[in-house]
Structures are given as structure tokens and as C-alpha cells.
Design a protein that fits this description.
The protein is α/β, with parallel strands linked by helices and 217 residues long. The chain has 9 helices and 11 strands. Strands 2-1-3-10-4-11 form a 6-stranded mixed β-sheet. The chain has a 5-stranded mixed β-sheet with strand order 7-6-8-5-9, with helices on both faces.
């Protein structure tokens, strides 16, 4: 029996990236007539996926890693960069590696309540008991400025910008090991996403930048 064609909507979630309306307007016409549904919060994607069991997904590789029954068909990249490092940064001079695990630490939520702690432990080598999850990068800066968290987890590439935009003197407590975290395109194992894969592969750099990448591999 031939595999069913993947005709359900393409679900996209890029937390901290372009707003859903922007993604819809730029990428929607490129994959027409297939529908596109985008989200800014992983929580919203998690709630919708059960209603579309055959839907392909574009999300962080860390998120897709925990989706059973999906195969990654395309991996996003920026130039030759394929992985990212994360930093735990703080303005609290009393924070050390010895007490970080029990401190309140802010993080951009790109995995959800259950998956985020697993990712953080894998990235830094130790668990963090009190993660304050936010949906926008700007919220992390506010939490640090108002001292509502002891530290924050950010992408290494965001450190200089965050330091420039806050009056708090930030320091790097620890950096993670390299992690796969750029968006990926994944398809349910029982579906045929060949046509959609071809469309996505052929999109120009200007379109792919709405997904936070410069190309696929």
C-alpha cells in the first residue's frame, strides 16, 4: 500500500523569531495551496499537533528530537554554522556554578515545560530546578534588569547585544557544549512530504531568513 500523501497543514514554531503573521505572509504563498499555521509559543504547537497527526513541522531540532514518529528531512544552517552554544549569564556576583542549579534562571521557551529541563541538563551537564520560561527574548532582559531571576540562558550570539542594551553588568557563568538547535523540517514517518521538501529547499535566502536560517542541508 502506498504511503498517504502529506496534505495536512505545515505547522511552524520558531520561539523568539519572527512573529507568526510575518512567517505566514512570507512563506505562506511559497507553499500554496497547502495551509500554513505558525505559532510563537511551543505550548500552542503542542496543543495543536494532536489534531493534525499527519502534519509536517518546522521547529527547533531540539524540539523535533522529542517528537515520536517524525523524520528530519531538512536541517537549517547559517553559513557553515550548524550548531549553537548557549550561555548562562548573570549580573549577580554571588552566583556560582556551585549554587546555579538551585537558582532561578530565565530561558526562552522553545521546548515546553517537560522538555526544556532535559535540554538544559544535556547542554550544561547539570539540572536546573527553577527555570523561568518566557516567550520573547526581550523578557529575559527585563527579568535580569528587575532582578526577578538570578541568571538567564541565552544563545552565545545574543550576548553582546544584550550587554549593550542593559545597565546591568553581565558576565558569563558557563557556556554549553555545541547543540543542534537551528530549525529543521520534519515529516511524519507515514506521510509523503517529498513535494513540500522540494518547495522548501528551493526558497531564496530572503524567505528562509524568516525562519532564522540561511539555507538547508
Amino acid at each position: 500500500m502506498a504511503a498517504p500523501r502529506c496534505e495536512e497543514p505545515l505547522l511552524i514554531c520558531i520561539p523568539g523569531g519572527q512573529v507568526p503573521g510575518r512567517i505566514d505572509s512570507v512563506l505562506g504563498s511559497a507553499i500554496s495551496p497547502r495551509r500554513l499555521i505558525s505559532f510563537q509559543r511551543v505550548k500552542d504547537l503542542d496543543e495543536v499537533i494532536p489534531a493534525y497527526p499527519g502534519a509536517p513541522v518546522i521547529g527547533s531540532s531540539a524540539y523535533v528530537r522529542y517528537l515520536p514518529g517524525y523524520t528530519i528531512l531538512l536541517r537549517g544552517k547559517k553559513g557553515q554554522i550548524k550548531q549553537k552554544k548557549y550561555l548562562i549569564i548573570t549580573g549577580n556576583r554571588g552566583l556560582t556554578l556551585a549554587n546555579a542549579a538551585n537558582s532561578k534562571i530565565g530561558v526562552l521557551d522553545f521546548l515546553g515545560r517537560e522538555k526544556m529541563p532535559v535540554f538544559v541538563k544535556d547542554a550544561f551537564g547539570f539540572p536546573i530546578a527553577k527555570l523561568k520560561r518566557v516567550s520573547k527574548k526581550e523578557d529575559l532582559q527585563s527579568l535580569l534588569g528587575m532582578e526577578l531571576v538570578d541568571a538567564a540562558i541565552i544563545e552565545e550570539s545574543d550576548f553582546k547585544e544584550m550587554q549593550a542594551e542593559t545597565k546591568v553588568k553581565l558576565t558569563v557563568l558557563v557556556e554549553s557544549k555545541p547543540m543542534d538547535s537551528f530549525p529543521v523540517f520534519a515529516c511524519p514517518d507515514a506521510a509523503d512530504c517529498g513535494e513540500l521538501r522540494k518547495k522548501l529547499s528551493g526558497q531564496p535566502k530572503a524567505v528562509l531568513e524568516t525562519l532564522g536560517i540561511e539555507g538547508w542541508e
